[in-house]
C-alpha cells in the first residue's frame, strides 16, 4: 500500500507531523478507534425524501461494521443512500447517475477497500456525470491511482484518502520486510519447509533425509549472507507518514539504522533532527548512499515506474530493495535483472505491477532452487491489512465527510491544489 499524502501522525507513534504534499492546514485528527466493535449495522437502500433538507451521502460498498457510535451521528446528520451491488456495476452505475436516481448527493463514501469499486476506475466517464452538489469523495485506502483526483478537484470535489489509518500497519510490515532483506528470511524459512511442501520423492525417508541436508546447509551458510541492520543506511523514497514511521521504528532509538530520504519537498529541520534523517536532493543520490532502499511514496500521476533499469544503475552492488507502495512504481523486469546480476542483493515486495499476478521471475527467486537461497520475500498486498486499519478507514472517511459538509477543513485531502478556488 502507498504512503498517504501529508496527514498528522497518530498519537500512538512519537513522530512529528509533516506535510510533504499538503496545500492547506490540517485540522486535528480524531481518534480512529472510538468505541469500535465487531457488530454490523444493516443499511437499507434508502429512498430520497424530497422533503428532507439533510445532505445526501452516496455510500458505495459494504455496510459499516465497527464504528457504530460515529455512524449513528453520521446517519442522523445525512441522508445515507447505499446502492445495491447490481447498481454499482459500471453500466448500471452510469445509467443511475444519468437518471439522477440518487438525487443531488453531496458526498461519496467508500468505507472499505474490498467493496465499492464495482464500477471500476473513476475517470471522466463517471466524474462528468456527478451532480454539481457533490463536494467530497472520502474513501478507504491510502492509494488513489484508481480515481482521477485532478478531474475531481477541477469539478470542485475534494478527494480524501484514509492512508493515515493504514500508516502504522504498513510501517510495521515494512520493518519485517526490511529485516528480511538483511537476515535472509526467505532462504531460512524456505529451507525449513520446502522439502516437505514440494517433495522430490514419494519416499518419506528420502524426503526427511533431503530436508535435513537443506536445513543444515541453510544453518551453516546463511550466516555469511546475513547482517544486523544496525549502522546500515536505510534510504526512504518518500518521507510522509509511513516513511517517517519506518524511520522512527528502525532509526537510532530502536534498530540503530542511519536514516536517509528523498522526497519532492524537503521536510522541516525539526523533523529531520528528531528522526536523524539526511535529505538527498535526487533519487540517484539516495540510492547510491543506501544499504536498503524502501519505496513508500504514492503512485505517480503518469503511471510510469520510478524504479527502472536506469535508476538501478545508481545502487551499490548488493543493495537491498523493499516496496510497500505500488507495484506500478517498479519495472519488475529490471528488478529481476538486477537481482540476477547481484546489483540488488535481496528484495521484499508486498505490491506487484499486475496484481493479483506475481512476476514469474521474482516468484522463482522467492523459493529455493537447489542449494541456491531464496533472495526475495513476496506477499499479497498485505501491509495495511489489519482490523485496526479497517476500523480507521471507516472512522476517518466519515469524519472527513462530516467536516467538509459542516463547512470545516477536510482532514486528509489529497487534491486541494486542483480545486478551482484552492480550498
From TrEMBL:
Residues 1-34 are annotated as: Disordered. Residues 8-24 have a biased composition (Low complexity). Residues 220-364 form the D-isomer specific 2-hydroxyacid dehydrogenase NAD-binding domain. SUPFAM superfamilies: Formate/glycerate dehydrogenase catalytic domain-like, NAD(P)-binding Rossmann-fold domains. Residues 122-415 form the D-isomer specific 2-hydroxyacid dehydrogenase catalytic domain. InterPro entries: D-isomer_2-hydroxyacid_DH (IPR050223), D-isomer_2_OHA_DH_cat_dom (IPR006139), D-isomer_DH_CS (IPR029753), D-isomer_DH_NAD-bd (IPR006140), NAD(P)-bd_dom_sf (IPR036291). One of its GO terms (cellular component) is cytosol. The keyword Transport does not apply. It comes from the Eukaryota. Pfam families: 2-Hacid_dh, 2-Hacid_dh_C. Keywords: Oxidoreductase. This is D-mandelate dehydrogenase. It comes from Lasiosphaeris hirsuta.
